[in-house]
Write a structure and sequence with these properties.
Elements (H helix, E strand, L loop, with lengths): L1 H18 L2 H10 L1 H15 L2 H14 L3 H9 L2 H11 L9 H14 L3 H6 L2 H11 L4 H14 L2 H20 L5 H18 L7 H18 L5 H10 L1
Helix pairs in contact: 1-4, 2-5, 3-4, 3-6, 4-7, 7-10, 9-10, 9-12, 11-12, 11-13, 12-14, 13-14
């Protein structure tokens, strides 16, 4: 019920406040509470409950104020599990609260030096997908770009984005012209465009890749005239 949901969120918010005190965070970590919160986050994702999911993630972020607790959470896979959960339930990436909350957590985890773990969890791909889905959120785009800047070089980021768009354009060329595929192209292309403005992203090599990609997009999308197709062609120009 709405009342139960509100009560759970209030409880998570209270524990999050307590977790900002390192001693409390360590005791809560030892108690196994964070594993229960991880389960709650998964249930929220499956139910499409954006507010509850955000509250669970915010608790983790608060607890991560303590470096040792953060290291333990990373070692237990609680952070990588959240990344996998978002990918398994992509609807959560469109939430009003949870996506930004997740980026705040990843930023804190990266700040404590766990960049290799985030790379292993493919957090960079996850962040880029969030940015592609939410291009109008200035706060999310800025935070995502900052984290990516810590995980990868600007050239790496742009190259990866180009490869993703090329893979989708190849699908279109092969006859996959559904609205879902066009929507994916539009989303990934939007994320790519945001990376062009990152200092150092456009080099001689990536510049050539961008030019080749633009030509390929225009050639492949030329026969298509849906709204998404026209948007994709306009972006490529």
């Amino acid at each position: 019920s709405d009342e139960q949901n509100a009560a759970v969120i209030a409880a998570l918010e209270l524990v999050a406040k307590l977790s900002k005190i390192p001693e409390n965070a360590r005791e809560l970590e030892k108690s196994g509470l964070f594993e229960l919160v991880s389960d709650a986050a998964l249930a929220a994702a499956e139910a499409g409950n954006d507010a509850l999911l955000a509250a669970a993630i915010n608790l983790f972020t608060s607890a991560c104020t303590d470096p040792d607790v953060c290291a333990s959470m990373v070692a237990k896979g609680l952070v990588s599990n959240l990344v996998s959960m978002f990918n398994k339930h992509p609807g959560c990436k469109k939430g009003k609260l949870a996506p930004s909350s997740m980026l705040e957590l990843l930023s804190k985890v990266a700040g404590h030096g766990h960049k290799d773990n985030l790379r292993d969890a493919k957090a960079d791909d996850f962040i880029m997908s969030l940015m592609g889905i939410n291009p109008d959120s200035a706060e999310l785009m800025a935070l995502g770009a900052n984290i990516l800047g810590e995980l990868l070089t600007p050239q790496d980021l742009l190259h990866r984005a180009i490869v993703k768009v090329k893979e989708l354009i190849k699908q279109v060329k092969g006859g996959q012209t559904s609205a879902k595929v066009f929507g994916a192209v539009k989303s990934e292309l939007s994320g790519l465009m945001s990376l062009i403005y990152v200092d150092g992203a456009v080099t001689k090599a990536t510049g050539k890749e961008l030019l080749d990609l633009a030509v390929e997009i225009l050639n492949v999308m030329h026969p298509h005239d849906s709204a998404d197709a026209e948007n994709i062609k306009a972006t490529a120009m």
